[in-house]
Amino acid sequence: MLTAQTALTLNSPITVGSLELRNRLILAPMQQYQGSPEGYATEHHTQHYSRRAGALGMMIVESTAVSDNGRLVPNDIGIFTDRHAEALKRVTDAVHAAHTPIFVQLSHGGRKSAPEVTKKLVAPSAMAYDDTYGVPSELTVAEIEALLEDYRLAARRSIAAGFDGIEVHAAHGFLIHQFLSPLSNRRTDAYGGSREGRSRFLRDTLAAIRSETGRGYPLIVRVSSTDYTEGGLTPQEVALMLKPLEAEGLLDGVDVSSGGLLPVQPPDVHPGYQVPDAAAIKQHLHVPVIAVGKIYTRPFADRIIADGLADAVAVGRPFLDDPDFAQTLIG
Q1: Average pLDDT, the chain
Q2: Closest CA to 173 of 120, 98, 111
Q3: Which residues 6+ apart lie within 8 Å of 26 measured at CB?
């Protein structure tokens, strides 16, 4: 479990399962658009992530597809064969040489999978994201079970690839988020309807991963706190979905982002705009919460942690321009 110690500053250590992080600064997952046509990690990934390691508490690799049919973009990376894991092992080895823990973000695009490489667009319900992607096929229970097996095998390969933990991507309008939201899930079987039904696929995914990793291996989930549309997810609803999963020991932390289910934008994107949602979710859970969203200064990050609004801070975009940005925040 990700357990919070006395969280006074960004420099305070924190424990993820059996893994102790030296500080609470996390490199957020960001697409590099540099995967091979087959979805393999390349030398770009080895250089990119190892160059940014060192001062960070940990880093999370960009979205990594559990299925060839669920890639988010044509040139992203995957972990759907053993050869993909071998390519990723070069990345983790390089990052570990800089003494930094590294997590993989496991994903499936669902109805937002890349049209260029997707053989069959699937989703909880036959509802399109937009005209570009088109209308997906509603997943059968047998297909859902096959996807759970994809996640299980991806977890096995993640360990073989040397990752120190897993983040399950349940945000930004991708497959698991599509199950969670009533705006995209109109199923009437056990995977739809009630809050419990809509969260079942996430629950089963985490359980499948746990069957491979065991309890001590760090497992966190990234969620969208809101759909920015009436009738969609809210921080309260998301927290109530996560609470039973926490009770089952299925997750060790929550990474709070927002949006992506529909082609709508947040009304106001200012520094820390997602922090209030992280704080609202944190009130319902015991596992620590990661805040993300334009948290670019040390005083701001320290205040978020010291005030108990979140237990760690993830930062993304500044690292694209400045590989040494961690030194700016950690010192």
Answers
A1: 96
A2: 111
A3: 56, 57, 58, 59, 60, 290, 312, 313, 314, 315
Q: At residue 288, what are phi and psi to the nearest 5 degrees?
A: -65, 160
Q: Could you tell me how far CA 179 lies from the centroid of its own chain?
A: 15
Provide the angle, in degrees to the nearest 10, between the axes of the packed helices 141-160 and 82-97.
40
Nearest to 68, CA basis, from 115, 117, 35, 124: 117
Look-up of token digits 């200012």: 270
Q: What is the pLDDT of residues 291-324, one digit of tens each?
A: 999 999 999 999 999 999 999 999 999 999 999 9
Neighbours of 190 (CB within 10 A): 14
H-only helix segments in 67-216 = 82-97, 141-160, 175-180, 195-198, 200-213
Is the pTM higher than 0.70? yes
User: Alpha helices, DSSP H only, in 107-140?
Assistant: none
Q: What is the pLDDT of residues 106-138, one digit of tens each?
A: 999 999 999 999 999 999 999 999 999 999 999
